Amino acid sequence: MRKIFQLSPIFRISAAIVGLMLALILAFDSLFDLLPSDLAQQIEIRKQTSFAVSDQIAHALQEDDLHLQNLLDQLVARNPAILSIGVRRDSQGTIAQSGKPSDDDASADRKISTPTRMIVPLLIDDRRWGDAEVQFKDDTGLRQWFNRPTVKFTLLFSTIGLLAIFFYLKKVLNQLDPSNAVPQRVQKAFDTLAEAVVLIGPDTKILLSNSTFTKMNAGIPGRIEGKSILRLNWLIDGLSDEAQVFPWEAAIKSNHAAAPRKIKVNLPNGNHRELIMYSGPIDDGTGVARGCLMTFDDVTELSEANSKLEYALKELQLSRDKIEEQNLELQKHASIDPLTGCINRRSFFAQAEPLFQKALADGEPLHCIMADIDHFKSYNDKYGHSVGDAVIQQVSGAMRRSLRTTDLLCRYGGEEFCILLVGPGPHGTEFGERMRESIETEAGPGVRAIDGLRVTSSFGVAVLDTGNRPATLAELIDQADKALYDAKHSGRNRVVLHRAEAPPAALAQPGKAA
Asked: DSSP character for 80?
């Protein structure tokens, strides 16, 4: 926690000077008695008072003893320092008394004077008649202590000396410009730096600053040298969100450079700046930090440029994402048949060619199926193209549900479809038969616009295996197309397998693979 109240260095120096001077005065007084003794002065005053009292008593005794008591009462009443006055003769004892003597003095030797009790002889016609005993009040209280000359001198000297030296030092130090103690070449070297530079002492007073830092404080009256850096509100406000310890405090306390801090400040001239603050200790050569050197790097333009660049990069990324989306969409439109959702012919060849070459090289089987909707032209002629499109959609959907995710389904053209079965699995005729049955049972009822509509398809299957190894994918598709031709000419709604050794034969009955 920062100190809320702290005596200024000027006050502490002034108090130290006054204390030193007072100590010297008291030391010389103990050696040479420069100051009057309080006790000696008090005894002398009481002696003079006692002799004056004895003279008045002796005069009264010569004229009339009857007036003695009245005189004693008047003397005690008029002098507040006197406690009691007594008149005593050796043969008769005390013959008159005014006031009440203290109990402490009752047992004292009546013939010996003390600081509080004076024994003065009474002389009548130059002969000793008796003694006058004057007892004074004890002045050991606080008020009497303050009335002592030495105490008065000490308090007066301390107060006046402290005030005089304090205001003198304050005036002298205020007129001293800390920058005058810095060589001009050093100041000029600091002024050439683009960064703002300020040097403070351990008391946070600014000792030196360059022109860049001075410009940042434009609007603050007077010079900033000699002022506490805590009075720069724009800097303190900029650091208020940071740690409780200021950077210069951390640097001076640890005698190590503080971590750089990025701060946003509102300068007195109204400008908003973003600064990076560096704080490093200045030691005296013995390892003790005596100040802190701080630099402020203005990164406002750089930060704004980075922000603009980040915004531009975000915009560019958004544009790239949008372009990629559009490219994917275009690619999708370019490779997907919009009516059926199957890949189109161009995309099919692009994807099937590598699969064909791999199967040809590895000696793995590969099945190709060509399918065609039976009597498709009759749907368009009888019910219209919308029903024809619905038939194509239902047929393609039934085929897709019968295939695996690794297989390729292509709308080859019009009402024709081409299928490539990839990887191990059942024979192509089994897939074909499955699709044929699915189309026969699902495709017609799926077209809800026409009740009782019956839709069938024919399939031709070609197999790439050890017995049939066409050189190209086109040859394999051509074989499947020939098998399809045979299926259509042998009664439709059936699956026909292409045979390399003999002409393809149609199935004897629907639902049976030839």
From this structure: T
Domain for residue 220, yes or no? yes
Question: Residue written as tokens 């002022």?
Answer: 227
pTM of the model: 0.43
What parts of the chain have a pLDDT lower than 70? Answer: 1-6, 33-39, 64-66, 91, 103-110, 139-149, 173-186, 241-243, 500-514
Question: What are the strands, taking DSSP E only, across 334-454?
Answer: 366-373, 408-413, 416-421
* Residues of the domain holding 45: 38-139
**If you search the block for the tokens 């351990």, which residue do you land on?**
202
| 489 and 343 co-located in one domain | yes
Write out pLDDT tens, residues 255-276.
889 889 888 999 888 889 999 9
3-class state of residue 265 by DSSP? strand
Domain boundary among 298, 316, 350: 298
The structure tokens listed for 302 are: 């750089």
Looking at the fold, whether 357 and 442 belong to one and the same domain comes out as yes
Output the domain CATH number for residue 492. 3.30.70.270
What total number of domains does the chain contain? 3
Longest dimension (CA), the chain: 186
How far apart CA 304 and CA 237 sit, in angstroms, is 21
Would you say residue 4 lies in a domain? no
- Which of helix, strand or coil describes residue 140? coil
Exposed, middle or buried: residue 127 (CB in 10 Å: 0-12, 13-18, 19+)? Answer: exposed
Residue 445, phi then psi, degrees to nearest 5: -60, -25
| CATH number of the domain encompassing residue 250 | 3.30.450.20
Position 65 scores a pLDDT of 59
The residues, any chain, with a CB within 8 Å of residue 26's CB and separated by 6 or more, are none
